[in-house]
């Protein structure tokens, strides 16, 4: 494979990505591009970023061999990249630390964020507190209900959480509202997007900050196993934890890359969020990418048991990796994800986030079809404490 | 001369500014839209911006978002909007209609099919909020092939280099967004608008309309003293939202007539276009 150097200068991954926003946002994005281009090559910025990841986030996150679960499944060995052990409990903080450091250098005193599961909101509120910045988090009112604990966490961290009542009252509507805030308050405000979607430079910038996951994994695999895994498996909503793991491996063509989307109640129902598996290309939230839409180009409400995967778009780099065949994308139902959640609790004493449980569920399907000496590296992108109420409810228990 | 050029050339000879209302197609229902368009022309508008409803109108404030949601309750599609324009054209051959909306419904239909059907329906211009000039080369080529004007937005934060780029691509008129923020917001600085418009006129040779934040007769008149066209959206959409079905045409008609009266009463017009 020739050297992978996407996106191009304007943020295109093949036909995907780009800057599809109203004129009012262009100058803010141009400024962000210029500043990020400068700081991504600035040694002092990078040193501070990695120092924060080490001492504040707690990196590197280990790779853990889920030996009992692998034995039970009776095939390939399942290894877990433990992003759930990061400060705040998910991979999201890698990105918010990076963007908050950038915001500080750009002289912004206020950060805003959108959130679905609440993990990105918590990660944003956390860094705002850490760096002494004002923080406003937009969250669909439906998600506010589903993720009450995370809402309270954000408030404890000093953030203002604004419930969004428009549209489907979920992540996409929170994103619309955050964009509106940014357009209005761009002078003092930095918008921390939590995933590898949105207009350029966000998909590239968030990928770069999350690439620490894959870069660490390559080194750890070499040191501990003397080789790279046969396949990488990660869940994909917007796709930031998956890109973080995949990106450093794109050139290693003998490592399969598998993104796992949310099939919700089934991809043949209207209730899923499997964008790459079932969607068509279009333009939403500043980039061209695959979308879940009706025949008239209206965005359709999605469904997943995990709020973090409940999004009708997907990062443009995933769209490109799908089209060029470098990565595979599959979908896992709510039920399959729940089963994997319980399995990991019982076999390994690890409670995974429902998002990550989708990746685990696919690993559980794939492992038995492979040899025992083959290695699957699953990104355990977050921990499941936040999902306790949802899981209990599924079992008919009210907490 | 196409319909948009004709209108602006007539207004120039009359030393008047254009009054451009925005309504969302299918709000409150599809039967009302064509009647409302005829009412608007009777009440004195020069051009109609017809919003194509979209599920995620990111650049719009709550008023226009709600109008989109009302239209989408009736499943109004881009095809339906084009049918409304064709229906309007049966009775009206002179008032230009500019579609305004978001990229994805057009992406779903495909550029080629969209421009052919839009041209057949009598659409004169199209403004796609989330197609900035950088992403518009192929789009503009398709529009111009069918004689449809590509309308672009300019904002207070648009740098001069981009103004030049827009000047090369735009036809019909350009739409200057008079404030930072979304539609329906309210903090318009007339001094800013004046100085920005004179900067824009160094490069833009076609008429400049000003919109966002124009909510009353006095502001409309002040804008008319500075711009070639006054675009009024949220205020009209609010009138639609708050009217009973039986009074809707009369209420919107009265509002538009008062705005017409206000902008025709402008003084010191200093436009130097063309």
Automatic annotation (TrEMBL), chain B:
The active site is at residues 49, 60. One of its GO terms (cellular component) is cytosol. InterPro entries: Aldolase_TIM (IPR013785), RibuloseP-bd_barrel (IPR011060), Trp_synthase_alpha_AS (IPR018204), Trp_synthase_suA (IPR002028). Pfam families: Trp_syntA. Keywords: Amino-acid biosynthesis, Aromatic amino acid biosynthesis, Lyase, Tryptophan biosynthesis. GO terms for molecular function: tryptophan synthase activity. Signal peptide: none annotated. SUPFAM superfamilies: Ribulose-phoshate binding barrel. It catalyses: (1S,2R)-1-C-(indol-3-yl)glycerol 3-phosphate + L-serine = D-glyceraldehyde 3-phosphate + L-tryptophan + H2O. The keyword Transferase does not apply. The keyword Mitochondrion does not apply. Its EC number is 4.2.1.20. Pathway: Amino-acid biosynthesis; L-tryptophan biosynthesis; L-tryptophan from chorismate: step 5/5. Belongs to the TrpA family. The alpha subunit is responsible for the aldol cleavage of indoleglycerol phosphate to indole and glyceraldehyde 3-phosphate. Tetramer of two alpha and two beta chains. This is Tryptophan synthase alpha chain. The lineage of its organism: Bacteria, Pseudomonadati, Pseudomonadota, Betaproteobacteria, Nitrosomonadales. The gene is trpA.
